[in-house]
UniProtKB/TrEMBL annotation:
Alphabetized PANTHER family for the sequence: RIBOSE-PHOSPHATE DIPHOSPHOKINASE FAMILY MEMBER (PTHR10210), RIBOSE-PHOSPHATE PYROPHOSPHOKINASE 1, CHLOROPLASTIC (PTHR10210:SF41)
Organism: Carnegiea gigantea
Protein name: Phosphoribosyl pyrophosphate synthetase
One biological process term in Gene Ontology: purine nucleotide biosynthetic process
InterPro entries: PRTase-like (IPR029057), PRTase_dom (IPR000836), Rib-P_diPkinase (IPR005946)
Length: 152
């Protein structure tokens, strides 16, 4: 399995390394450039070999799904066996649902930090609840306990 991330921020490198170690795999990065209005100009490159591998794309949000779709197209073109998309915030502005349900993704996994209306539902979509995580966090803050153990 290969985890693929669209950003190259230094702040994220530690969490990527931790994820890479937990999955016992290498991390492959896909660089991109955006123009105004969140339109993807180009996918610059894919670092590493994904032939025959399962690729997991992770992002903070999916808005129009342009970037993540272009990335999935690249991964499939480079021989990825399956491509999964994961994000925290499912904005799903048009034409996101059309792009995400086009068959490029084995599964699209999001959280319910934003409501996902029924009209934006599609076969590959899995929505995970954040209720327990938020409830536990609120309880720990109220009780003056550490919240860091939740994320270990």
């Amino acid at each position: 399995m290969k985890q693929v991330d669209r950003d190259k921020g230094v702040a994220r490198s530690k969490s990527r390394q931790t994820l890479s170690e937990e999955l016992e795999t290498n991390i492959k990065l896909r660089d991109n450039k955006h123009s105004l209005f969140n339109v993807l100009d180009q996918v610059m490159n894919l670092i590493g070999d994904v032939r025959g591998k399962v690729a997991v794309m992770v992002d903070d949000m999916i808005d129009t799904a342009g970037t993540i779709t272009k990335g999935a197209e690249l991964l499939h073109a480079e021989g990825a066996r399956e491509v999964y998309a994961c994000c925290t915030h499912a904005v799903f502005s048009p034409p996101a649902v059309k792009r995400l349900s086009s068959g490029l993704f084995q599964e699209v996994i999001v959280t319910n930090t934003l409501p996902v209306p029924e009209r934006n539902s599609f076969r590959q979509l899995t929505v995970l609840s954040t209720a327990n995580l938020l409830g536990e966090t609120i309880w720990r803050v109220y009780d003056d306990c550490s919240v860091s153990c939740i994320f270990q």
